[in-house]
Amino acid sequence: MTIRIERRLEQPHWLAVAVPSASIVLALLLTGAVLLVTGHDPVHAYHRLFDAAFVGKDALTQTLVSATPLAFTGLAAAAAFRMQLFNIGAEGQLYFGAIFAAATALYLHSWPSALLIAAMVVAGAVGGAAWAAIPGVLRAFCRTNEIITSLMLNYVAALILNYLIFDSLSYWRDTSTPEAKVFPQGKMLPGGANWPSWGIVHSGPGLVIPLGFGVAVLVAVGLWALYSRTRFGFEVQVLGDSPRAARYAGIRTRRKILAVMCLSGAIAGIGGASQDGDFRHLLDPRGLQQAGYGYAGIVVAALGRYNPFAVVLISVLLGGLQNAGYALQGADFPSGLVGVMEGLILFSALGCELLRRYRVRVVRRTGHEPTVPATEPTS
Amino acid sequence: MNNGIVVVVAASGVLYGTPLLFAALGELLAERSGVLNLGVEGMMLVGAVMGFWAVQRVHGDSAIVLTAAIFVAALAGAAMALIHAFLVVTLRANQIVSGLALTIFAGAVGLSSYLGNDLNLADKPAKHAFDQISPFGLQKLPVVGPILFGQPLLVYISWVCVILIALYLSRTRPGLNVRAVGESPAAADAMGINVARYRYAHTIVGGAFAGVGGACFSLMITPQWVDGLTQGAGWIAIALVIFAFWRPELCLVGAYFFGAFSALPFTLQARGVTVAPELFQALPYVATVVVLVIVSMGWTKRGLGAPAALGTPYVREEL
């Protein structure tokens, strides 16, 4: 008996739901195995995890807080990965968005709140796009691998962020009190720069939706429209599927690379602005760096198969995981478990992707090969 | 003369370049067989944490403990690489996404951090570490002595590895086969070479090298375990392979070049240079980008020496 892997001629529709679901279940089983091997009770851990992420008091609200940056970095990754442009720099682009948005809020402190928030969104997008333009230009005009350059720039962006608050008397740093000189931190943003949030459910666990999450949904709609309803989006998809065909069709490759890179960076940058406006209200290097939003965004995008709406949904799922991971961190819930789970989810999704494209058949070696497939593809 | 700043920076460049060299050699082996593994950072971190664990938990003579630790680190790195190999060779997954997944799974906020916490390894000094040894008193030579011969044992081992891998790829039958698999898997397959077996073997051995590279940090440079202590060295190692045109002997040169950049902040700080530390810390990353741009300008993928089949899965019936 041997196992044969054959290409599917048609992909049944139910697979589009079954495959991601199966990969999450598989990832839970694998993480359970890691927990068991290292001497923890997986059932207990999962119970607490689910409780802290979705059931307990304020759990859903906190989950949305974690999900908002993931939605942005996930959409950023989806926008670029769709064109096979591997922008791993959402992390740094988010920092730059936060830096630009914070500067805008501090500078335009007298503006009315609505205008100021709009200005922050624009500034965040510009900051992220500017930082993403570096690997974009290098890829488009020097053919430099964007994976490595965008990743290296994450470290540089983090160092710039630290420099602005911890090692200089920059515009962003609070220097008003003597304590602030000993324990450096960012200037508080003006009150008008606080993004509003809406309490939807007041009873029970409660649910508050931050403005940033709403913006992320709008970005998702925009991205969907751009990629499925415009010429630009069509050309990007052709470039992603077959760069050669795109060249024959006369699609301007370099411009597209730069444009998509900047688009991706801008989305991540708005995520940075949302961090300033929604949650932190100052430029906070430690807070921005602790969670690895950019890297988690890759998991979100891949699991959502680069579909903007799926990305937003998955961001809530992984946001719950991150939120619970931080809430539960301790002896029986070591830090790093969140990353292990995210990695395993991505591995499972990749592995299960095979089932979508191929059929796995067990073939008996006795005598002649069977001419009829064991299972017909359902169409 | 032997304490001049140039000599000190060069000597620490060799020391800090050694983990990069091990990791780059491993990545080179995998890429020569056609498998791009972007999980180097994760494999290094898991190697670093498991090597450190071995040093803290195995009792005995220092030499035996350190040897065991290197084997454990190599094994851990190899285990991580096995996941990648299974996904991309057997399951034909996208190599880029799988490599990124490996970095997330094993990296600074993943398995390495989990193991470091769960095994309670953080913030404790290493019980044994690789100390400087000077073979035949060569350290007393002017300039070259302290740079090349006042180093820990792992540095000398890395030279042996460079020579062995260079000879392996250019002078042996299996080495020739690997190159065939990386350049044209279909032709290699027609010659009767088992493509999948070669790709598995070289990806896994590559992971073992990355694991040893990680252990260089926790057993030689730092010597300690801190979450994410490689600080992007794995990614620099990947860039290094491109920079070295996929040739082991050039990896050595490149590794020491980047090593010097990584060591510069510490050296300058020790000498009381008062410029913002972030400026120097950013140097290795900026240097990586600059060198990559220089290398990639003007050359096509083939001209650079990249294996032609790099990054593409091989399926016999789909050509």
Topology:
The complex is a heterodimer of chains A (379) and B (319).
Chain A: E1 2-7, H1 15-37, H2 42-55, H3 59-81, H4 90-107, H5 113-142, H6 146-166, H7 178-182, E2 197-201, E3 207-210, H8 211-229, H9 231-241, H10 243-248, H11 253-280, H12 285-290, H13 293-303, H14 308-328, H15 337-357, E4 358-363
Antiparallel strand pairs in A: 1-4, 2-3
Helix pairs in contact in A: 1-15, 2-3, 2-14, 3-8, 3-11, 3-13, 3-14, 4-5, 4-6, 4-11, 4-13, 5-6, 5-11, 8-9, 8-11, 8-14, 13-14, 13-15
Chain B: H1 5-32, H2 40-57, H3 62-90, H4 95-106, H5 111-118, E1 132-133, H6 144-148, E2 151-152, H7 153-171, H8 173-183, H9 185-190, H10 195-221, H11 233-243, H12 248-270, H13 277-281, H14 283-296, H15 301-304
Antiparallel strand pairs in B: 1-2
Low-confidence stretches of chain B: none
By CATH, the topology of chain B is ABC transporter involved in vitamin B12 uptake, BtuC
The mean pLDDT of chain B is 89
Largest sheet of chain A: 2 strands, antiparallel
Number of helices of chain B: 15
Provide the spatial order of strands within the biggest beta sheet of chain B.
1-2
What proportion strand of chain A?
5-15%
- The end-to-end distance of chain A, rounded to whole angstroms, is 28 Å
CATH architecture of chain B: Orthogonal Bundle
| CATH level-1 class of chain B | Mainly Alpha
- Tell me the β content of chain B: under 5%
The CATH class of the domain at 61-306 in chain A is identified as Mainly Alpha
Major sheet summary line of chain B: 2 strands, antiparallel
According to DSSP, the number of beta strands of chain A is 4
CATH architecture of the domain at 61-306 in chain A: Orthogonal Bundle
Q: State the share of residues found in helices of chain A, binned by percent.
A: 55-70%
Shape assignment of chain B: globular
